[in-house]
Design brief:
The complex is a heterodimer of chains A (453) and B (540). Chain A has 453 residues and is of the alpha/beta class. Helices cover 35% and strands 12% of the residues of chain A. Chain A has one domain. In chain A, helix 5 packs across helix 12. The N terminus of chain B is likely disordered. The chains are: A alpha/beta (453), B mainly alpha (540). The interface between A and B is large, with 77 and 78 residues.
Chain lengths: 453, 540
C-alpha cells in the first residue's frame, strides 16, 4: 500500500525544523490587516513548475517490474509496452509490494530517485472529490468538466478550479497571499519562461514573462542623448491615456517590459552562469536561465519565486515508440542538470521542481500511439523532497480493473489539489489559506501528501 | 501566377471598339478615410491609402463583392515551380512562408487572404511538429483555406478532414479499425478536435453564442466520450492516396497535396454513434460514414454561433455582443436563399454588421496580431527585398510570437477565451491576442518593428535578401518634422493620430540632423514611433 504519512506529524516536523519559513507565513492575517503581521520571509524558497504540454504518457515513465504487475501492464499496453528488462530499476525505501523501474531513457531521473533527491506522485490528476469507479459510472460524484480535453485539463492543473470559473491559477493565488511578505522583491513572485499561463495568473499580482534565455532589452534605448530621449518618448506614449481597453492593456504590458528589462538583465549578468552543463533543448535553456535567476536572488531581493517552464510534444497520438524516448530522455537530463545546478548554487534544499501535464494517456493503443486519459505520474525533485518514495497510489493497470474507466483511463488516486497543497505548504502558505490555493482540498482527508520534508 | 484583372475600376480594356456608354458616376459613399481604414484592417492584411480610396469610391458591399469574385492567390504552384526542387524541408518551408508574405503583402485577393489567415488560426495545422517534413502539404492546406474559406462550410470541413496536412497533424491519416486482440482502438485525436475546436465546441450554444444551461444552471456538454469514439471509428481507413497498401503509405511531394484515400479493409464496418443522437448503421462504406458523420456536425445548431463567434474574433472584435453573434449565426443558418453554411454570406454579414461599422467604443475592436501589424507596415510602405523574396523572415516566431501556419499546437498561438489580468478580466471580457503579448514577446516585436522601420531602400550595405521599405515620399518632406508626422500618420493611421504621439514624433525627428543622410532616419523614426504605439496596435 502506498506510504502516506500522517499530515499532523508532518506539519510538526516542518514547524520544528523550519519555524521561520512556515510560522511567519501567515499571509491571510497580514493581508486582512495590511499593517503589522506582515513580516517578510526569512528564508528563500522557489518552486519550479515543469509543464509537459500534450499529456505525458507517464505510465511508461514509471513502470511496475514485479511479475504480476508487469504482466498486467504489458497486457494493457501491448505494442507500446517497455520491455521489462529495459526498465531502469529503482528501490523505494517504502514498498507498496510491487517493484518499479523508470523508462530506459531516464537514467538521470533514476539516479536522482536513488539518491533520495526525487519522488514520484503516482496517479494524480484533477478531481473535485475522492472518486471511485462505481461513483464515476453511477454519475453520482462531482467531476472536473471536460475530462480528456487538453486545454480544459491544463486549466484544471493550472487553476484547480473544479466546476467553477476561475481566471486565477494556484501559483498566482499564492503570490497574492504572500505579497506583503515579499514586499521588497524587485521582480514579481511569478516568472514565466514559457509565455502567459493561467497557473501564474493572480487576482492582485501579475507574472513577469521572459524568454528561454532571459529577458530582452529594447533596442535603441540608451542612457543618454537621442537614445535616452527615444526611451522617454516611448514611455510617454505608453503612459498616455487611451480610450480602448485593448490599447490600455497593451500599453500596460509595454510599461512592465520597459520597467523590468534593464534591472533583470543587469542582475542576471552580474554572475556567470553556473558551470553545470545543461542540455541544449529549449527546456534545458529555460532551466539554465532559472538557475541564473536563482543565483542572483539576493541582488533582486527575492524571497519566494515560482518559475514556469515547459516543453511540448507529449500528445503522442502517433509514433509514440519513436518519440517517447526523446521526450522522456530530455526531461530526465534537464531535471538532473537543474538539480545539479541548485547543488552548485547551494540552494538544493530551497528549490523544489515538479512536473504537471494535461493528463495521463490511455493504456490501450490506437495503433502507434495513445489518446487522452486522466490520472498519471508526476515527478518532484529537490533536497526538500522526501525522496526515493512513491507517494499517492500506483494504480492497477489492468484493463477494466478498479481504476480504469475505459480504454485504460486511470481514475486519479490523489488529486491535483492535494499535490498543489503539499507544495504550497512547503512554500509557506499557512493551513488557513490552503483552501484559497487549492479550492477542493477540503474534500480530501489528506491535505498534505507528505512528499515534502 | 495570380495577376487577375488589375484595378477593377476602369471598366474598359475590352478588345473590340464597341463604344460603351460611360457608366453613371456612383453615388458618393460618404465613407471617410478613417472609416475605410477600419474596414480594411478587418477585411485585409493591412489598410493602405490606395485600397481605402477604392473602398471610398465603391462602398463596402461593392468592394466585398469585387473581392469575392477574385481568384485565390496560391502558394503551392510556386513551390512546385522551383527547379530543381529543394530537397530540404526547411528550405521548402522557407519558400512557403515567402509565398505567404507575398500573397499577404501584394495579393489582389486581400479578403481571401485575410479570411484564410483567420481559418488557419481556427482549423489549425502547423509547420511545427509532425508537418516539419511536409512543406508541400502545409502550402496546399493554406491554398485550400484561400480557395474554400469563402465557399460553403460543409465543403470546407470535408476538404480539411481529408487533407493530408490535417490527416498527419491530428493523426487521422493511418487510423485503422480496432483490433481487440491487441487492445488497439481507433485514434480519437481528430474526432475530438474537429468538434471541440473547429465546429461545435464543448457546450451547447444558443444562437447568440451564449451557453445553454440545464435546470441546475450548468452548461450542457455538446457530446460525450462515446460520441468521440463513434467519430474515431468513422475516421478509419484513410491514408495517402495511391499507396501500394495502407501500411506502406509514405508521403511524397505528390500525395501530400491531394485528398487522402480510403482503404476499405481498414475501415471499421460497425455502427457508430455521432452527433445529434444519430447512429450510423453498420456496413456502410467509409465514404458514406464520413458523409453521415460530417452531416451530423454540419447540421448541429452550434455550428452557426460557434463559427460566427470565432470568425468575428479573428476579423473584427474580441467581444462581439450576443446580438452581433446572433445576426451572423442566422446568416450562417440561412444565407437568405435557404442555403446553410455560405461563408461568403457569413463574412459579408460580419463586415457589414452595425457593430463592425458603427461607432467605436472602449471595448469594440481588438488588438492587431503581430503578423498583421507587420503586414500592414509592409503593405503601406512596399515592403520587399531586392530579390523579390520574403524568405529572410521565414521564421518569425521568435520575433513575433507567431508565424504563418506555425502555431505551437492545434490550440493556435492564443485562445479565444484568454482574459488578461486587470481591467479586461475584471469586465468579464477577453482579448485573445494579448495572450502572446508578454513583456518578452512585446519587446521582441518592438525591436523587430524597429529593424523593419529603419531598414529601407537607401540603407547602406543591403543584401538582396534584406526586406526593406520605401521612404521616398517621407524623405522628400523629412526636414519638415510636422509634415513628416502628418504623412506617416496618414498612411498608417488614416490621420487619426493622438496629440501625444504626434508631439513625440515631431520631437524625436528633430533630434536628427537635416542632411540628406539623416532624412531616411528621420522618416524611419516617425514610422517606428507609430508602428510600436498602442494606437497602431489597436484595431478599433
Amino acid at each position: 500500500m502506498p506510504p502516506i504519512r500522517p499530515s499532523r506529524r508532518d506539519f510538526l516536523s516542518i514547524a520544528s525544523t523550519s519555524a521561520a519559513g512556515l510560522l511567519l507565513a501567515r499571509p491571510h492575517a497580514a493581508i486582512g490587516q495590511m499593517v503589522g503581521g506582515s513580516a517578510p520571509f526569512a528564508d528563500y524558497r522557489a518552486l519550479v513548475c515543469v509543464f509537459l504540454f500534450g499529456g505525458n504518457d507517464s505510465f511508461n515513465m514509471l513502470v511496475p517490474r514485479s511479475t504480476a504487475e508487469y504482466d498486467a501492464y504489458a497486457a494493457a499496453r501491448q505494442n507500446l509496452a517497455v520491455a521489462r528488462d529495459q526498465l531502469l530499476p529503482i528501490a523505494p525505501t517504502i514498498s507498496d509490494g510491487a517493484d518499479y523501474g523508470v523508462h530506459p531513457s531516464m537514467p538521470g531521473l533514476q539516479t536522482l530517485f536513488e539518491q533520495g533527491q526525487a519522488a514520484f506522485v503516482a496517479n494524480v490528476g484533477p478531481l473535485i472529490e475522492p472518486t471511485t469507479k462505481a461513483q464515476y459510472e453511477a454519475k453520482n460524484v462531482l467531476l472536473p468538466p471536460q475530462l480528456f480535453s487538453h486545454n480544459d485539463q491544463q486549466d484544471q492543473w493550472h487553476s484547480l478550479r473544479g466546476r467553477t470559473i476561475s481566471e486565477t491559477g494556484w501559483a498566482g493565488r499564492m503570490a497574492d497571499l504572500i505579497r506583503v511578505n515579499v514586499a521588497g522583491q524587485q521582480l514579481a513572485t511569478n516568472v514565466s519562461l514559457a509565455g502567459n499561463t493561467l497557473f501564474q495568473s493572480g487576482g492582485d499580482t501579475v507574472a513577469y514573462s521572459m524568454g528561454a534565455t532571459g529577458p530582452t532589452q529594447f533596442a535603441g534605448f540608451g542612457p543618454a542623448g537621442r537614445e535616452l530621449e527615444q526611451r522617454r518618448a516611448f514611455e510617454r506614449i505608453i503612459n498616455a491615456p487611451y480610450d480602448s481597453i485593448y490599447a490600455r492593456a497593451f500599453a500596460e504590458v509595454q510599461r512592465r517590459a520597459v520597467e523590468a528589462a534593464d534591472r533583470v538583465t543587469a542582475a542576471i549578468n552580474q554572475l556567470p552562469p553556473p558551470s553545470t552543463v545543461f542540455p541544449t533543448s529549449p527546456l534545458g535553456q529555460q532551466l539554465q536561465t532559472v538557475a541564473r535567476l536563482i543565483a542572483v536572488r539576493s541582488e533582486l531581493a527575492m524571497k519566494r519565486q515560482v518559475f514556469f517552464v515547459s516543453t511540448g510534444g507529449f500528445d503522442s497520438h502517433d509514433d509514440q515508440l519513436v518519440n517517447q524516448p526523446n521526450l522522456l530522455g530530455n526531461i530526465s537530463a534537464c531535471l538532473a542538470a537543474f538539480h545539479a545546478a541548485t547543488v552548485e548554487l547551494g540552494v538544493a534544499g530551497a528549490v523544489t521542481t515538479f512536473t504537471q501535464s494535461d493528463f495521463g494517456r490511455t493504456l490501450t493503443s490506437n495503433g502507434d500511439g495513445t489518446d487522452h486519459a486522466w490520472g498519471g505520474v508526476q515527478v518532484v525533485v529537490g533536497q526538500a523532497v522526501r525522496g526515493r518514495r512513491i507517494f499517492g497510489r500506483y494504480p492497477s493497470l489492468a484493463l477494466n480493473g478498479p481504476d480504469d474507466v475505459g480504454g485504460g483511463r486511470m481514475i486519479p488516486a490523489v488529486s491535483a489539489d492535494q499535490y498543489a497543497a503539499t507544495l504550497a505548504r512547503w512554500f509557506g502558505i499557512g493551513d488557513a489559506e490552503l483552501a484559497s490555493v487549492a479550492p477542493n482540498i477540503g474534500n480530501f482527508n489528506e491535505r498534505d501528501l507528505g512528499f515534502m520534508v | 501566377m495570380l495577376l487577375a484583372a488589375c484595378g477593377g475600376s476602369s471598366g474598359g480594356g475590352s478588345s473590340a471598339a464597341v463604344p460603351t456608354p460611360a457608366p453613371a458616376a456612383p453615388p458618393p459613399t460618404g465613407i471617410t478615410k478613417p472609416e475605410a481604414f477600419r474596414f480594411l484592417n478587418q477585411a485585409t492584411m493591412g489598410a493602405t491609402t490606395a485600397e481605402a480610396d477604392r473602398v471610398i469610391a465603391m462602398g463596402y458591399e461593392a468592394w466585398i463583392n469585387d473581392q469575392l469574385a477574385r481568384p485565390a492567390s496560391l502558394e503551392l504552384p510556386n513551390l512546385q515551380a522551383v527547379q530543381p526542387p529543394p530537397q530540404n524541408s526547411g528550405d521548402l518551408h522557407r519558400n512557403r512562408v515567402d509565398m505567404w508574405f507575398r500573397n499577404a503583402v501584394t495579393g489582389q485577393d486581400q479578403l481571401r487572404q485575410r479570411v484564410a489567415f483567420a481559418w488557419s488560426e481556427i482549423m489549425v495545422v502547423s509547420q511545427v511538429g509532425a508537418l516539419a517534413n511536409l512543406p508541400y502539404a502545409v502550402a496546399s492546406y493554406q491554398d485550400l483555406l484561400a480557395r474554400q474559406g469563402l465557399g460553403n462550410f460543409r465543403d470546407l470541413m470535408e476538404s480539411v478532414t481529408l487533407h493530408p496536412a490535417m490527416g498527419v497533424y491530428l493523426s487521422m491519416l493511418g487510423n485503422q479499425r480496432p483490433n481487440a486482440a491487441a487492445n488497439i482502438r481507433p485514434d480519437e485525436n481528430y474526432a475530438r478536435e474537429l468538434m471541440q475546436l473547429f465546429t461545435v465546441g464543448l457546450v451547447e450554444l444558443n444562437l447568440d453564442g451564449t451557453p445553454r444551461l440545464d435546470g441546475a444552471g450548468q452548461p450542457i456538454p455538446t457530446y460525450s466520450q462515446p460520441v468521440i469514439e463513434g467519430f474515431a471509428h468513422v475516421y478509419t481507413g484513410w491514408t495517402y492516396a495511391g499507396a501500394p497498401s495502407f501500411g506502406q503509405a509514405r508521403p511524397t511531394p505528390a500525395n501530400q497535396v491531394v485528398p487522402m484515400q480510403l482503404y476499405a479493409s481498414f475501415h471499421d464496418p460497425g455502427p457508430k454513434l455521432v452527433l445529434g443522437g444519430v447512429t450510423i448503421p453498420a456496413g456502410q462504406t467509409g465514404a458514406q460514414d464520413l458523409d453521415a458523420a460530417l452531416d451530423s456536425i454540419f447540421t448541429h445548431p452550434n455550428v452557426g454561433p460557434f463559427i460566427a463567434q470565432r470568425l468575428i474574433q479573428r476579423l473584427v472584435a474580441s467581444n462581439p455582443s450576443p446580438a452581433y453573434v446572433s445576426r451572423v449565426a442566422q446568416r450562417f443558418n440561412d444565407n437568405g436563399r435557404g442555403g446553410r453554411g455560405d461563408l461568403a454570406a457569413v463574412v459579408t454579414a460580419i463586415l457589414l454588421d452595425p457593430e463592425a461599422r458603427g461607432p467605436s467604443t472602449a471595448s469594440t475592436g481588438k488588438l492587431k496580431e503581430p503578423l498583421l501589424r507587420l503586414t500592414q507596415l509592409w503593405r503601406a510602405y512596399n515592403g520587399h527585398a531586392a530579390n523579390g523574396s520574403f524568405a529572410a523572415f521565414a521564421n518569425p516566431g521568435p520575433f513575433l510570437g507567431q508565424g504563418p501556419l506555425q502555431a505551437g499546437s492545434v490550440f493556435n498561438f492564443f485562445g479565444p477565451d484568454y482574459a488578461p489580468p486587470g481591467e479586461i478580466r475584471a469586465l468579464g471580457l477577453v482579448a485573445p491576442e494579448l495572450e502572446i503579448a508578454t513583456e518578452y514577446q512585446n519587446t521582441q516585436l518592438t525591436n523587430r518593428l524597429r529593424t523593419y522601420a529603419f531598414r529601407n531602400s537607401r540603407t547602406a550595405g543591403l543584401t538582396p535578401e534584406d526586406i526593406v521599405i520605401d521612404l521616398d515620399a517621407e524623405v522628400a518632406v523629412a526636414n519638415d518634422a510636422s509634415a513628416l508626422a502628418t504623412l506617416v500618420a496618414d498612411k498608417l493611421l488614416a490621420g487619426q493620430v493622438s496629440t501625444t504621439l504626434r508631439t513625440e514624433i515631431v520631437n524625436l525627428v528633430g533630434r536628427y540632423g537635416t542632411t540628406a543622410a539623416d532624412a531616411p532616419n528621420r522618416a524611419a523614426q516617425a514610422i517606428y514611433s507609430v508602428v510600436t504605439s498602442p494606437e497602431y496596435a489597436l484595431q478599433p
